[in-house]
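=== Structure Prediction Worksheet ===
Name of assembly: unnamed complex
Input type: mixed (protein and possibly other molecules)
Chain count: two
Listed entries:
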Amino acid sequence: MIAQSFFAPVQRELQEVEALLHCQANDAHPDLCAALDHLLSSGGKRIRPTLGLLCGRMLGAPHDKIIILAAAVELLHTATLVHDDLIDGALLRRGIPTLNAQWSPPATVLTGDFLFARAAKLAAETDHLALMKLFADTLATIVNGELTQLFQARGLVSRENYYQRIYAKTASLMEMTARAAAMISPVDEAIVETMRQFGYELGMAFQMVDDILDFTGEQAEVGKPVGSDLLQGLITLPTLYYIETHPDDPDLNILLEGEYSAEPQHMERLVQSVRASQAIDQALSEARQSIERALACLANMPAGAEHQALQALANYIVDRHF
Amino acid sequence: MIAQSFFAPVQRELQEVEALLHCQANDAHPDLCAALDHLLSSGGKRIRPTLGLLCGRMLGAPHDKIIILAAAVELLHTATLVHDDLIDGALLRRGIPTLNAQWSPPATVLTGDFLFARAAKLAAETDHLALMKLFADTLATIVNGELTQLFQARGLVSRENYYQRIYAKTASLMEMTARAAAMISPVDEAIVETMRQFGYELGMAFQMVDDILDFTGEQAEVGKPVGSDLLQGLITLPTLYYIETHPDDPDLNILLEGEYSAEPQHMERLVQSVRASQAIDQALSEARQSIERALACLANMPAGAEHQALQALANYIVDRHF
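=== Predicted Assembly ===
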């Protein structure tokens, strides 16, 4: 990975966050310690802590609190990934074996629980009650989103459902991160709300782009077959655009009737149709609009290296891999 | 179950707790709502919320906060049971089907996570930062205890290990409950510490008695085969006493060499030997000593119906089923 410029203003802070993350299981069972080290070394880019650190520094938050907040956010994210991988039966994440590929399901469930507990403890250490409640609410939103997706029939064509899903899955945590960074800063409510919106738009764009990359990425890069969501009957933004412009494609019927798993060759052809259509560009254009709104939120924020880095981060989210 | 007198002073508060518990999934997916109702209707005695309510009322805690605390404690307990039953593959709890007997493992994992999130949210609503940290720490203690037990070889003969295990499993949450009730009350640090100790002793005795009932209870009552811990190679207090007084029992070798699952007939004979020995009375006597220490903690606490009910609760813990 090429080092991105937006990490630069918080290079040292990121090292402090890393140290704080790695010591979270120091007083626990040695195998749990080892599991945490494995999880933290699994190549996450630390986009979320970087977002929190940049927002906090831009707005003048106390140093100690932004470090703790950034660590809490990354740990919460890590905990949800541990349970996600278990639920999906995923054996690799970013090319590295998942915890459940090496551990029993019981140990994996409990490791996720332990990380939730430590994330909550870190959040409490910011000494900010409203932040604690926001943190707990965000976890509930994420988990409720996953449960809803689990219970929902596949082949559901609904923009509203799509936006709710990506909010729960990705945007809620980035929204919380930017908002919480403002909450621990000496700024007024209007700034907190603007930063919340900044994080929201960033997060929505982030997941839209992930969903586009699922179609356009190379299998080796994404680590999953091209169009893996659609192959599993999950309709994301590119497919929504495709359906709007090609309502008569006969392969769509297979999808909408929930027969996607029985007719994989139809679904593979549909993936190729979406890839070859305007739907990819349309989806990308929608993600870019989110990023434009995010950049507008930054307009009146304090100038400086952190402000510039947040702009770079926003642009990176929509430009990566294109 | 015969209604116990110690519920009387907090009858109305328990109804408020119940209402607060049942509305925790109101804004979530309907299936999650139904799952929560099922879990809450599964016949728990509400010992933990009762403990919190009695302590809080005795010490003059604000009404709203003790209700919230009691609900948070019960929800945290419920969340850990959901993941426990999944891990153990238990299909019944208190004679009622567990969540994992009816739901897929993914849905069960996520339901537990959702309950953790809501418990944390409730804890935050007490508006007490130290309580939040204590809450998160207690969850970490419980989960670390489960992980340690998972990783540990069976047939381990160690009192220290036993006490650590029952602290993590049961006493930590009761300790937290009594301590937190004091923290939200207008009392000084010394009282908080005494109430912490009260909850600790109560919790240690509670689990010791549970471990004794595993030997002495009828299968129908306990819902598991008599001596189920020992049949699985898990050494609890009665077995520890038995080993000290019968070091030469040849059936013990099977256990200590970890061959318990290969030689079930030896383990069944060992269960009968423990049942017939003095070990049961010795273990019970140790639990009674814990309860004596708990009662001593109450000595200088405000008199009244709650004080008496806490004494009754302490006595009930060690006298149930004997």
